[in-house]
Predict the structure.
Amino acid sequence: MTDTSIPDSLRLSLKRLEEQISLDVQNWREAGRIVTSSEIFIRRPDPSYYYSVEPGMMNEIPPEDLEVEVWDLANLNQFYKTKIESSSAYQRVLDEVVQG
């Protein structure tokens, strides 16, 4: 479903900004400039579920380890300042939002 409350010109500018950011992230990743760390989470069965047939069933579902790659905040801020904030695509989006 398309949100018609967003003007087409703004939608196009946002799409261009999205494409530019994706390309810049890919370039930074290929150049080895993105600093990340891995965080591991353990997801357990949700005890709020109602197991009507077999209440003990929840205990039979094993926990699941989830590993997530997290972008270092200082490195992310550097990317934002050097690649996004200074881009013409970002400035176009800001101009369109301010204008209306």
